[in-house]
Amino acid sequence: MNAASVIGRVGGLAVAFGVGTAVLGGNAVASAKPAADGSDTRASASQASETSGAADTSEPTTAADTDTGDLDVPADDAPDSDDSAAGLDDAAEHDGAAEHDGEDTDGDVGLPAANEDAGDAESDDRPLTSSRKPGTSDGDASAQVTSPVSPVSPASATSPTSDDDAPAETPDDAGAAAPATSPVRQEQAITWLSSPAAVAGRTGAASTPAVTASASVASPLLTLVENLFSPFAGYSPDGLPSGSPLSWAMAAAARREALVAGGPISVDPTLDFLDGVIYGSVGATDTNGRPLIYTLLDGPDQGGKITLNDDGTFSFLPDLSVVDSRGVENFTVMVSQTSVLMALLEQIPIIGDFVQPLVIGLQQVPVLGALLQPIIGYRVITTIGVDVDELVPVGAPVAFTTMVTSFDGTQISTNFFPASGLQFGQTAPTVLNGPGLGSAGDIDPTSETTVFDLVPGLVPLRDGGYNVVTWDPRGEFASGGILQLDNPFFEGRDVQAIISWVAGRPETELDAPGDPTMGMVGGSYGGGIQLVTAGIDDRVDAIVPVIAWNSLTRALYPTKAFKTGWATLLGLDLLEAGARINSQIYPAIILGDLLGFITETQEAILESSGPTVLVSSITAPTLLIQGTADGLFTLAQAVTNAMLLDANGVPVEMIWACGGHGVCLDPLNPIQTPLLVNTTLDWLDRYVRGNELIPTGPRFEWFDQTGAYHSSDLLPTEPDFYGEPIVTDSDGGFLPIIPILGGSGPQTQSPTPLIVSPALASEASLALNLEIAAPAGTQIVGAPEITLTYSGLGTATHIYGQLVDDATGLVLGNLVTPIPVTLNGRTQTVTIDLEQIAYTAVPGGTLTLQLAGFATPYLDLFQVGFIDVESVSLSLPTVAVGAGASAAQAGVAVGSAAA
């Protein structure tokens, strides 16, 4: 849409409100039109009757070249005006298109079309009359002027002369368009709309007097409309001209900044350079004391990144090119009020969550946002410039962002943060911190933890003396390429390119040329990429993968049961992030959700993504952290990785913490997060810095269902870790397999009653139950083993097993295991491990094994039939007395301290 069309639409709206004012209260405002040759010729009209009757219209009044600022209306967009309320309809229906026949076909009052012929040089002087006879030329002095409406306000400008009259006297700067942002033009627009005396004085109107209108009668409806649309309703700034609130609204619509000078919000941005990072504040205040909302409208214009906080403070990463050139980078922020209405609507359940995004969207609309400010809150838009040369001392290490070119030319958006206190000429070891799926690289220098509070953020890592590098993975956010789910041939090589780039930075400590002293941390997707990278690049000195995986196939498609709950959540996460992904991923999710299976090609993509066999190639010391309540990458994934690493003699330790992909419904020990952060830093200090005096702690640590902490010097992959299992047998029973009814999930019990997740298991009401008792204090850690002998008929390929803590009614870890069955009428036997658990038997406490025919984490509506279980045997793994003695004591001590 060209500029003339846009201005025409704004002008048409202005005229529509002007005609509306005439109908409601007796005020008429005419629009101005530029000439076809682009000169800034403007005109307005005023027609009225004297108080005693109709006005003398035998001689048109003289035109004044009125500078209306940004309210110019192209001639081709001039709407028709009527002598009745229909004029409002005409103006409202006008869409700004250049469609005029040059005549008012209905014979009523109207504005003649102008500039219909682009080559008509006389269009500048055509009269703007209230009415003309059909067939009369535009320059005909005999055109008749009538009084179409009730008396009008003198706020309207005088009518232009015909071609036969002397030209009107114009100011020296007539036709010279002022800059769009000129405060003078803003003031002229406002004054023209509100004060006829100012119009006459500023434009030097001809001596022919304007037609004087009688006083208009106050209208309750007009008062209502004016109060509704007044930009300063309930607020009268000093030093600004009074006038029609509708006129104020039109001025604001044409020029958003017109409201900034006198609005209730003021901004005073400040910037500072602190410990290698650029910080700042929008510095906004509100005279009414209302809460303010900060919205980033335009990101940094040179490729930088910004973290804008709720209080208007921010941190800023300039692009490396701006750092090198010591240039300036700009971004734009909108500061808006929380109006009373908005605050009330936000209290409405469910609907309230959508109020703020909707209001912020409306406030950004140039016309509508200005008109609705009294209702939805005022806003100010400000551009902030970050001058690197002014802020950053020459040579000082500074946090920045840049693009790193990967092996195939894909640009990977990479962020660099210097270690705290790092000075010019100094170097430090580096830590790469990878984000989770659907998340951008961490750019918040104040972050203490990330990924469910399981991974250290930028603060502890930088304070620990490490440069930190984060990045947007391939196919996500600012990076290019197609996401391949941490495939070693794509994402793995992307990180290799980042490592090589890090080796070339002057702030980087090196083990050898091209080999930086470095480690890696990160959770989920950022955990998987560590295992992949360390499996293909021995420049990585140590890794701490958190809630990562070994095999995506076994994580999402165990025993050919599709994990619909988590797969759907992952797909939605990718959609929300706008990720560009492998074309087979979404079809696999849809097929699995609908039919419960995926194709061999899709299964091969899962199998090729992530570490799998690469774990056996890792030489970097590895600290594995996994979640006891992780329903996506369960504890078994970490156990598999630990077993492979330990078999190859790689230093490995493991921690099981309450959390992960899911919801920790058990009591959370307050030492958990500090322990994870501190242990991670100790691991890096020991194996990246090479400080052998740093103890790394027990080989295995875990938190049980009560939140108590336990530890052992043995891994749960070692035979000596286990004692005698607790074995329970039962005769089983008959179980109908019916979709949805009585199965496991969705989980509705949580600290927040509104949280409901179909990906979490819950106690089933239709199930075969087997009660299990264990001596108080017994540590049950690992994978329970179940053996079923059964027969049955139906289409079902799985039933589902879970352990319920009878003391709380919660499924241990919120985890349910698909048990493959063959329902062909014959007697079958199956033995399988249930999901790994960490449970401490309490006095009088019991567990219940449940076998259910349906589970929402593995939603499959085609599973129907029945199963007759002849016998069931469950074996629970326990911690050996020797391995568990110190662990139990540690658990009591920490648990008591936490309590």
From TrEMBL:
Composition bias type Basic and acidic residues, residue spans: 91-100
Question: Which superkingdom is the protein from?
Answer: Bacteria
Task: List where Polar residues composition bias occurs.
Answer: 41-60
Pfam families per record? Peptidase_S15 (PF02129)
Cite the Xaa-Pro dipeptidyl-peptidase C-terminal domain residue spans from the record.
Answer: 681-880
Q: Which InterPro entries match?
A: AB_hydrolase_fold (IPR029058), Xaa-Pro-like_dom (IPR000383), Xaa-Pro_dipept_C (IPR013736)
Q: In which residue ranges is the amino acid composition biased (Low complexity)?
A: 141-161, 173-183
Any one GO MF annotation of this record? dipeptidyl-peptidase activity
Chain positions covered by the region annotation Disordered:
31-185
Question: Which keywords describe this protein according to UniProt?
Answer: Hydrolase
For bias type Acidic residues, the affected ranges are: 67-83, 162-172
The record's annotation in SMART domains points to:
PepX_C
**Name of the protein described by the UniProt record:** X-Pro dipeptidyl-peptidase (S15 family)
Task: Identify the taxonomic lineage of the organism of origin.
Answer: Bacteria, Bacillati, Actinomycetota, Actinomycetes, Mycobacteriales
